[in-house]
Amino acid sequence: MTDSTSRFGFVAFAETWNGRLAMLGFVIGLGTEILTGQGILAQIGLG
Predict the structure, then answer these.
(1) How far apart are CA 38 and CA 36, in angstroms?
(2) By its UniProt entry, which Gene3D superfamilies does this protein fall under (predicted)?
């Protein structure tokens, strides 16, 4: 069985992984904010 569909560009596969990684980043950022007591901008020196 061969899969000849593209996995790059604006395809469902790429958009699915983009959404998953965005959710993961949001959860990590929120967890870091809860643990340190500082906002994300304050942690990187902008706030």
Answers:
(1) 5
(2) Chlorophyll a/b binding protein domain
